[in-house]
Amino acid sequence: MSGQDPKFVKGAFAKIADRYVMTNHVLSLGTDILWRKKVGRIVQGWQAQRVLDVATGTGDLALEIQKKCPDARVLGSDFCPEMLAHATESGVHETQLADAMNLPFEDASFDVVTVAFGLRNMENWEGALREMARVIRPGGHLLVLDFSQACGLLRKPYGYYLNRVLPKIAGLLTGQGAAYQYLAGSISDFPFGEEMVELFKKAGLLESQCEPLSGGIASIYTGVKAA
């Protein structure tokens, strides 16, 4: 299954790196913080010793996992140096420049792999899931947090906000409205719900499931690496 143009994505994120965190909090009214805290609690329950946060960006999720799992070794990876620099400055203990489509790690290196709002921006979604599954030990977990499609009464107003309002506000905050216009469009094309669960299964992940958040605006997907 296809994804995004990696050159465009890297360039877009390099331009918005300095104001990325602040802009996300404003645009989501702080809800993204609550979503990451929930992910942190889930990972804490898995009692992982080695955690890889792929597409860590400015390190928000890696920092939350470090906080919830102080005994775990948490590594944040990203293919955008500008984003990774912010993750290091923010306090992520270990970072590594790496392309999610070709991770520089041995098979079965990690107990848990997470990716928050990053899979959607990758070159090939199914291929990225397979690559992340490769570096998880048998019985370990993959967790994806990403935007999905709002349902019910939220669908139309959220669609209007996403496509019309969000890029304008983000443009004022970052001076890079085009990057956020891309991000808004990428959500519409991204598989969600059962379609994403099926991609997990194709990547060899068992017990795959989806948990919608905030009326379906975002979702948490989890799966277990087959033995």
Give the gist of this structure.
The protein has 227 residues and is an alpha/beta fold.
Helix/strand layout:
Blueprint: H1 6-16, H2 20-27, H3 31-46, E1 50-54, H4 60-68, E2 73-78, H5 81-90, E3 94-97, E4 110-116, H6 125-134, E5 136-147, H7 155-174, H8 177-189, H9 194-202, E6 205-213, E7 218-225
Parallel strand pairs: 1-2, 1-4, 2-3, 4-5
Antiparallel strand pairs: 5-7, 6-7
List keywords for this structure.
9 helices, 227 residues, seven-stranded mixed β-sheet, alpha/beta, 47% helix, Rossmann fold
Outline the structure in words.
The structure is a single chain. The protein has 227 residues and is α/β, with parallel strands linked by helices. The chain has a single domain, classed as Rossmann fold (3-Layer(aba) Sandwich). The chain contains 9 helices and 7 strands; from the N terminus they run αααβαβαββαβαααββ. The chain has a 7-stranded mixed β-sheet, with helices on both faces. A hairpin with a 4-residue loop joins strand 6 and strand 7. Helix 3 crosses helix 4 and helix 7 packs antiparallel against helix 8. The longest helix has 20 residues. It is globular. The model has no long low-confidence stretch (mean pLDDT 85).
